[in-house]
Amino acid sequence: MASKKVALNGWRACSTALRQVPKPHHTVRCLSVQASRPRKLTATPTKTTPPQQHRIRYASTEAAEEQLGRTGLYELHSKYGAKFVPFGGFSMPVQYTDLGIVDSHHWTREKASLFDVGHMVQHHFSGPGAEAFLQRITPSSLSSLKEYSSTLSTLLHRETGGIVDDTVIARLPGKFYVVTNAGCREKDKAYLTEELEHWHKDFPDQPVEWKVLDGQGLIALQGPLSAEILARILEKRSVDNLKTLYFGQSMPATIKDTDAEVLVSRGGYTGEDGFEISIPSFATEAVTQFLLDSAKDELRLAGLGARDTLRLEAGMCLYGHDLDDSTTPVEAGLSWIIGKDRRANGGFHGDSVILQQLKKKSEGGGVSRRRVGLIVEGAPAREGAEIVDESGEKIGVVTSGCPSPSVKKNISMGYIKDGMHKSGTEVNVVVRGRKRKAVVSKMPFIPSKYFKEPTTK
């Protein structure tokens, strides 16, 4: 999940990797079980418009007009005083009039915030070959993924093992639910189209059906009060199921006093407990408003500015910055997404490169660079700042960076020469032509607070 320059302190190098491909077709019901319009959530059916549909002027009056899409929550954002910026082909809220970016960040850590991630792309893959197809293009052990469970994964290039996009994959009854990044929309579309063509040619007896959930809403409820707030708008059976829904798990749920069906997934991008909620297009605005009305003193809308500082503190990658086509999962510190059986048997794109990188150096393995966190003294080190050793020789580069509202220090993420990646290693970062002292730090920069399933001894 490329950022744009905006005239907001703390946002310039901080833009979130979120995702969706919406289209102006609000009558489509994208869940497998059709739902009628909410009986009490009587919102007007919302329209989502894809990029190239609306001409929106931004930046300054001198700026050229850009053609941007809108999610189904655009009007609601406007109602709450959103300041919009271009992101991933959409006009997205960066902050709201009630809270600045730093205040919104703290609000999320202390209470709960609601993020519109409806620009992200939601997919369904089904059919006899769906599991094997997804295992071909990702390094994940999907064969052992339980129903209503999910995993972070990556789409991979065939020969190099480079990351096409990072993604979340969940197994649902009879299909897989996959979410990809807005900024990679066209690239992913071309990639998946080509890969499916290869698959059907190689395995004609294992067809795969691919469906993009056009217009489907997606919101992220994040923060320590998230579960309590979500429970207020769910019917009783869904509330009971919510109590035992752990990080990385999903469940179908019904909104209270309605027949609006949603998919609730426990997880998120901030390091806090929280949920991502996939909502039929006709109910997206109404469900979001219901959540806001149910917790007026505890829940606030939050934009891309706070989301980026939150994700960086949580050590989360932003595609196009911390991950790209030339980066493998091993270099990116994502080796944990490569399943044990996949390590043993391969069978995924780029496996010859990735499995070799996983080997010990004595066996000819390893990588030349590794993703690390940095604590930087003085001015914050932004994307593109060089990491150098004491002699001034370049040994890496910063890919994301900003002042951390929670840590109260300047934090950065980047890639550094293998051997210099251990926590506590002292290096320098070149900021505005001056060397600044920095220390390699473990990530996340703050403890994660996910609601995880208790481990059994």
Written account of the structure:
The chain has 457 residues and is an alpha+beta fold. It has 2 domains: 367 residues, Probable tRNA modification gtpase trme, domain 1 (Gyrase A, domain 2); 78 residues, Elongation Factor Tu (Ef-tu), domain 3. Helix content is 20%, strand content 29%. Strands 12-13-14-11-5-15 form a 6-stranded mixed beta sheet, sandwiched between helices. Strands 16-19-18-17-20-21 form a 6-stranded antiparallel barrel. A 5-stranded antiparallel beta sheet has the order 7-8-9-6-10. It is globular and about 65 Å long. The protein starts with 48 loop residues before the first strand and ends in a 16-residue tail after the last strand. 50% of the residues are buried. Keywords: Aminotransferase, Mitochondrion, Transferase, Transit peptide. This is Aminomethyltransferase.
List keywords for this structure.
457 residues, alpha+beta, Gyrase A, domain 2, Elongation Factor Tu (Ef-tu), domain 3, six-stranded mixed sheet, six-stranded antiparallel barrel
Which secondary structure elements does this structure contain, and how are they paired or packed?
Layout: E1 49-56, E2 66-70, H1 74-79, E3 82-87, E4 90-96, H2 101-110, E5 112-116, E6 121-126, H3 130-137, E7 150-156, E8 163-172, E9 175-180, H4 185-202, E10 209-212, E11 217-222, H5 226-232, H6 236-242, E12 250-254, E13 261-266, E14 274-279, H7 284-294, E15 299-301, H8 304-313, H9 340-345, H10 351-357, E16 369-376, E17 386-388, E18 394-403, E19 410-417, E20 426-431, E21 434-441
Parallel strand pairs: 5-15
Antiparallel strand pairs: 1-2, 3-4, 5-11, 6-9, 6-10, 7-8, 8-9, 11-14, 12-13, 13-14, 16-19, 16-21, 17-18, 17-20, 18-19, 20-21
